């Protein structure tokens, strides 16, 4: 009944871009260092490198920068943490995880102002050469980033629509996609009562998005908890509804004998859980948006950040939204205008 | 935030009044006081095919202001003998109220889930070990008679709801 299976599932995709064996070990060790020692045993289950990422992600680690740069000091600290002897109850673990998340949440706004990509380089000043090199390459084609926590996708999309005032069809498509999502949710047998409030808030924002003059005004709307939570929740339900109504295609990728309903309620619908690859796929297809996810990992075999494209089933009608994935969350990347059409 | 939860609870309230005929095992689900939509009560009826038959089980439901992002806190006010309910505090061990809560639940669907927990106990995660142990060793006669006794003892009074 109570399993920590949320940390067990790993989508196949990020694994492809996941760090090498040694890198993933150091990331895990850094996690261990940042957590109360008793949390280690029940959560960190060494299945595959990607699992460690999922664990990190799920906890929204405050120390994720250390985890990524894999600074030698944190590795040492992690190695000395003793194996846990005390078994915590689910509830205690949940409470502790929530405390860590809340701490992180209070430290950063939901979506932040956009900054020059040099800010990302600064984060890794003392990190490994691999990361610095990859970010350098990334800055050839991208010039800005926007840190976010939770609703990177929604903000990136709505901002794109807002800025493209000369292309009203982007707005029309977006409104249509959100309106259509109501039928998708009903088809997946969600109760109208349960999702209506989230849906209406989301629809209201996209309908009025052209009235926002600047990204900062839109940002202000997204920094309102009620609006932000509603949009995130609606998109989570949309992803869940898509997966539930396309079980034949996606259920084979589930692990550990999970049913699609179990997977969706544990990973997709629940707030604060990591958006895994399957969820990104579901969103792109349900809302007809193309996304490219840049996976920034310590994999030393490549000089470039690994980009994974997620395409809708229909012909994309605008350049992909670009998200930067690091364990725990997605930030928004802004591609230089002359690179918008090409693939990096 | 709180206005959102008020709006949501008002919607649920209206929907519950409309659907009352479709949920035979839920005698009551309403706010304790009309002016506070964040504190509810419910009465579950023991189903006729179970040892809880004839019992009326009162639930106390507290809605957090972050509902439905976070789950309501629900406990039994009526003392009940069940593997997943704490005999003294009425605390309920049900995954959807804790680790597996998702905002797609409503108060009504949660109450239906608790009602079905009565007839489908999960002895592997017990809050009442004595009841769970009887089930785990397959002593259905012992389990059923224990449940029947406590149901008769605590859940069959026709007392007025406590304020």
TrEMBL record, chain A:
InterPro entries, per database record: Papain-like_cys_pep_sf, Peptidase_C65_otubain, Peptidase_C65_otubain_sub1, Peptidase_C65_otubain_sub2
Keywords annotated in UniProt: Hydrolase, Protease, Thiol protease, Ubl conjugation pathway
Leading EC class: hydrolase
Single biological process term from Gene Ontology: protein K48-linked deubiquitination
Gene3D superfamilies hit by this protein: Peptidase C65 Otubain, subdomain 1, Peptidase C65 Otubain, subdomain 2
Any Pfam family the entry gives: Peptidase_C65
One GO MF term attached to the UniProt entry: cysteine-type deubiquitinase activity
Sequence segments annotated as region (Disordered): 1-30
Reactions listed under catalytic activity: Thiol-dependent hydrolysis of ester, thioester, amide, peptide and isopeptide bonds formed by the C-terminal Gly of ubiquitin (a 76-residue protein attached to proteins as an intracellular targeting signal)
Entry's EC annotation: 3.4.19.12
Any one cellular-component term (Gene Ontology): nucleus
Listed Polar residues bias regions: 1-10
Protein name: ubiquitinyl hydrolase 1
UniProtKB/TrEMBL annotation, chain B:
InterPro entries in UniProt: Ub_conjugating_enzyme, UBC, UBQ-conjugating_enzyme/RWD
Domain of life: Eukaryota
Alphabetic keyword roster: Ubl conjugation pathway
CDD domains noted in UniProt: UBCc_ScPEX4-like
Transcription regulation among keywords: no
Domain UBC core: residue ranges: 4-156
Protein name: UBC core domain-containing protein
Native source organism of the sequence: Dissophora globulifera
């Amino acid at each position: 009944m109570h399993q920590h299976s949320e940390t067990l599932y790993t989508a196949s995709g990020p694994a492809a871009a996941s760090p090498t064996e040694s890198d993933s070990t150091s990331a895990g060790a850094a996690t261990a260092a940042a957590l109360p020692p008793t949390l280690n045993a029940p959560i960190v289950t060494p299945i595959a490198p990607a699992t460690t990422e999922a664990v990190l992600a799920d906890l929204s680690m405050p120390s994720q920068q250390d985890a990524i740069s894999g600074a030698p000091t944190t590795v040492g600290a992690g190695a000395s943490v003793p194996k846990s002897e005390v078994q915590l109850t689910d509830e205690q673990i949940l409470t502790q995880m929530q405390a860590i998340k809340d701490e992180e949440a209070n430290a950063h706004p939901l979506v932040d102002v956009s900054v020059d990509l040099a800010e990302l380089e600064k984060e890794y000043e003392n990190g490994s050469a691999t990361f610095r090199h990859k970010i350098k390459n990334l800055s050839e084609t991208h010039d800005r980033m926007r840190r976010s926590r939770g609703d990177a996708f929604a903000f990136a999309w709505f901002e794109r629509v807002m800025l493209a005032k000369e292309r009203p069809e982007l707005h029309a498509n977006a409104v249509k996609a959100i309106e259509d999502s109501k039928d998708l949710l009903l088809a997946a047998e969600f109760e109208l009562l349960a999702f209506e409030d989230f849906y209406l808030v989301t629809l209201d924002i996209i309908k009025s998005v052209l009235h926002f003059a600047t990204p900062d005004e839109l940002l202000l709307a997204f920094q309102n908890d009620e609006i932000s939570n509603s949009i995130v929740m609606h998109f989570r339900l949309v992803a869940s509804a898509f997966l539930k109504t396309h079980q034949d295609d996606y259920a084979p990728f589930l692990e550990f004998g999970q049913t699609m309903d179990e997977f969706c309620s544990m990973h997709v619908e629940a707030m604060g859980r990591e958006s895994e690859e399957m969820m990104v796929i579901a969103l792109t297809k349900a809302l007809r948006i193309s996304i490219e996810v840049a996976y920034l990992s310590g994999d030393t075999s490549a000089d470039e950040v690994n980009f994974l494209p997620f395409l809708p089933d229909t012909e994309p009608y605008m350049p992909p939204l670009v998200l930067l994935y690091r364990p725990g969350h997605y930030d928004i990347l802004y591609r230089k205008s002359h690179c918008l059409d090409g693939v990096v | 935030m709180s206005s959102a939860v008020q709006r949501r609870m008002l919607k649920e309230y209206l929907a519950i009044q409309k659907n009352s005929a479709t949920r035979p095992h839920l005698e009551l689900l309403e706010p304790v006081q009309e002016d506070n939509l964040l504190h509810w009560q419910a009465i579950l009826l023991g189903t006729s095919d179970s040892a809880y038959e004839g019992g009326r089980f009162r639930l106390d439901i507290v809605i957090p202001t972050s509902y439905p992002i976070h789950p309501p806190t629900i406990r039994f006010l009526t003392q009940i003998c069940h593997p997943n309910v704490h005999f003294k505090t009425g605390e309920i061990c049900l995954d959807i109220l804790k680790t597996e809560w998702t905002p797609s639940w409503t108060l009504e669907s949660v109450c239906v889930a608790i009602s079905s927990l009565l007839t489908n106990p999960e002895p592997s995660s017990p809050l009442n070990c004595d009841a769970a142990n009887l089930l785990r060793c397959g002593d259905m006669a012992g389990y059923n008679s224990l449940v029947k006794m406590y149901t008769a003892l605590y859940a069959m009074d026709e007392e007025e709801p406590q304020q």
